[in-house]
Amino acid sequence: MDIGVLLVFQNYHENVSDEQVFKHDLSLGVLAEKVGFDSVWSAEHHFDDYSMCPDNFAILSYLAGKTSRVKLGIGATILPWNDPLRVVEKAIMLDQMSDGRLLLALGRGLAKMEYEAFGVPMDESRDRFNEAAEIVLRGIRTGVVSGDGPFYPQKEVAIRPAPSPDINWEGRLFGAAMSPDSIPVVADLGIQMMTFVQYEFAKHAEAINEWRDRFREANGREPLPPMVQDFVICHEDEEEARRLAYEHTHRYFLSVIKHYDFAGKHWRETKGYETYQAGADMIREAGMEAAADAYVEANIYGTPEQCVEKYAARRELVGDFIANAAFSFGGIPFAEAEKSLTLFGEKVVPELHKMTSKTPAAV
Fold first, then answer.
1. Distance CA 103, CA 95 (A)
2. Do residues 106 and 77 touch, judged by C-beta distance below 8 A?
């Protein structure tokens, strides 16, 4: 099992500047390699203290120069907000700068406030994603970008630097699938599924197995492991791990609700996002505190041994998967985030590596 670290760059601290948070989380990316993680990922988010990472290609370019082994994950590039031509150029360049360590995930975005700031109609997100994804996947493989669709018409152009003629993207391409509508899209693209844990894992197992079945049908081959993202607290003391989780993972959940307006009523009227309304209704019916508690329990917290047990239980449900973990979120003190990441790297990662063969390494 490969294990990665997600850098969130969330400023839910008191009297701490955005710059301090940003530089601290960058340092966690360097630390992740030192303590044994396989990859470091950065999301793309804009305009909010929820997650301050407007250019994850730049973030990972910095980390490419600070590391030598760890793979570098764009998790994800939000295609409706980016010109697919530029995505292809930056992906090829970052892959060459890092000696073939790039992992690339594609997403369509979910926050109304980000769409509005960019002036992109949210109702167009699915069509924009589908059109751009085809352009990007073809472009990174061939070095040639072209498109004749309504959103991204592109005269055929060859990218320079050109991709290496022997470049192999197997095991390195992912698609965010956070809703039932996205699962068949990612499967049909022939790329690995990426999902964030939101509720009890048995429900995620159903979605993962649905993706696998659709992938086999669409591509005539077995899919590689999906990636599962958690917000993680690892501590030698069981009660302290629980306390930290119920303070900081709980707070992170509330930040998710705020950023995405998950408890809102706009989902039903937003094309391509109608299925999110059921989740929003459930949150309102359960109450925010109960929903936050359920979110804490769905994610990973505990002693190193307890963390290993929780991942093993998931593997019983879905087979092989890639585990991705965020350690700095919800206002957790910098020192606690570093201790949690280091302890997980030193005591949990080696045990997870033993569970199954490694996924294909970037070459």
1. 8
2. yes
Tell me what the pLDDT averaged over the chain comes to: 94
Q: Give per-residue pLDDT as tens, 217-237.
A: 999 999 999 999 999 999 999
Residue 319 is which amino acid? G
User: How far lies 274's CA from each of 114, 176, 197, 247, in Å?
Assistant: 18, 17, 20, 31
* 65 CB neighbour count, 10 Å cutoff: 10
State how far the Cα of 59 lies from the Cα of 121, in Å rounded to an integer. Answer: 27
E strand or H helix at 74: strand 71-78
pLDDT tens digit sequence for 16-58: 999 999 999 999 999 999 999 999 999 999 999 999 999 999 9
Query: Which pLDDT belongs to residue 264?
Result: 72
Closest CA relative to residue 151, chosen from 103, 92, 108: 108
Structure-block tokens of residue 194? 């990426």
HSE-CB at 286 with a 13 A cutoff on CA atoms is 15
State the DSSP code for 195.
E
Rg (CA), the chain: 19
Both tokens assigned to 16 = 């701490």
- pLDDT tens readout for residues 54-103: 999 999 999 999 999 999 999 999 999 999 999 999 999 999 999 999 99
The answer for residues whose C-beta is within 8 angstroms of residue 245's C-beta and 6 or more apart is 233, 296, 299, 301
362 pLDDT band, cuts 50/70/90, is very low
For the entire predicted model, the pTM comes to: 0.94
In this structure, the dihedral spanned by the alpha carbons of residues 75, 209, 341 and 17, taken in order and rounded to 10 degrees, is: 40
Contact status, residue 218 vs residue 200, Cβ threshold 8 Å: no
Residues 6 or more apart whose CB falls under 8 angstroms from that of 320 comprise 1, 225, 356, 357, 359
The phi and psi torsions of 348 (rounded to 5 degrees) equal: -95, -45
Angle at 174 between CA 168 and CA 179, to 5 degrees: 160
Task: State whether residue 77 is helix, strand or coil.
Answer: strand
* Cα–Cα dist 250/343, whole Å: 21
For 251-297, write each residue's pLDDT tens digit: 999 999 999 887 777 777 888 888 777 777 777 777 889 999 999 99
